[in-house]
Design brief:
Blueprint lengths: L2 E5 L10 H10 L4 E4 L8 H7 L5 E12 L2 E8 L6 H12 L1 H14 L6 H8 L6 H10 L30 H10 L3 E4 L13 H9 L4 E5 L5 H14 L2 E4 L19 H10 L6 E2 L5
Parallel strand pairs: 1-2, 2-3, 5-6, 6-7
Antiparallel strand pairs: 3-4, 3-8, 4-5
Length: 285
């Protein structure tokens, strides 16, 4: 089985619609795909309707969190999308995205970059606006050559010249909320140092003690040495180890299924989940 548990669609900051995403996943030979848009579940219905036979969908979300001033992302799988407390927290995070984006645009304008809200809104479309959309605007304006090059201290990285904070969940509260909604939590790309500061291992250990289920080890932003270190940490803390592409369509160079999760780990994730079940493809529409 080929299992990719971290992908994004146009419901957040990917470039493929949910329907296009699952069709591409099927064509790429995947058996299981996780749809984990940022702080939203709006892509579920379209993805399920288009799900090809032979492909199973794991519903999820990537939750924006912050601890001790460090931004981090929490992957949540197979939770009840309508559970009121978790839904309210997701909406609180999502509603803060527009004023935050406008604040970053204002800072870029002060730096002499002629980006506009209209340009960023066009790029975001119906998705939850975020830094990748602003980064895409910088590429369009020839300020940076690629989206990744915008995520530096010079521009949009945490603490960067154009960075603006937004409401982000406390990770311990996020774990509690996801668990109460029947879901499973995995810390996304915990050592992606290119993105800025990362959480210390002591914080990961504290999260493990609070019910964190796993950490994403096999990821494009982790080199082999880092992956080996994280595997050892996961073993010490009794955490599940996942691997995922973090696919964003054409916004990133990584391909669907470039990194995958072991079938036994996937089985344990589904065993622990009580809020939702994986959805088998029925041929799509």
């Amino acid at each position: 089985m080929r299992i990719d548990l971290h992908t994004h669609s146009t419901a957040s900051d990917g470039t493929d619609t949910p329907a296009e995403l699952v069709r591409r996943a099927g064509a790429a030979g995947l058996d299981v795909i996780g749809l984990t848009d940022h702080d939203t579940t709006r892509g579920y219905a379209e993805a399920i309707a288009a799900l090809p036979a032979g492909l199973t969908l794991v519903t999820g979300a990537e939750l924006s969190c912050r601890i001790d001033g460090v931004g981090m992302h929490m992957l949540a799988y197979l939770f009840d999308a309508e559970e009121p407390a978790l839904l309210a927290e997701r909406e609180l995070v999502r509603d803060d995205r527009v004023p935050r984006a406008k604040g970053m645009i204002a800072k870029l304008n002060e730096l002499g970059v002629p980006v506009t809200w209209e340009q960023v809104a066009r790029i975001a479309g119906d998705g939850s606006v975020g830094r990748p959309h602003i980064a895409t605007a910088l590429v369009e304006l020839d300020v940076v050559p690629t989206v990744s090059d915008a995520f530096t201290r010079q521009w949009l990285a945490d603490g960067g010249r154009a960075y603006v904070e937004k409401h982000e969940s406390d990770p311990f509260e996020a774990i509690r909320l996801v668990k109460a909604a029947g879901g499973v939590t995995v810390l996304a790309h915990p050592a992606a140092v290119k993105r800025g500061r990362t959480v210390p291992e002591s914080a990961i250990a504290a999260m493990a003690g609070a019910g964190l289920d796993g950490i994403e080890v096999d990821h494009m932003d982790h080199d082999p040495e880092t992956r080996a270190r994280l595997r050892g940490l996961a073993g010490d803390l009794g955490l599940l180890v996942t691997g995922s592409s973090d696919y964003h369509g054409s916004r990133k160079t990584v391909a669907l299924g470039e990194f995958t999760t072991d079938p036994e780990i996937y089985g344990e994730i589904t065993r622990r989940a009580a809020g939702a079940f994986p959805v088998p493809g029925a041929g799509g529409v």
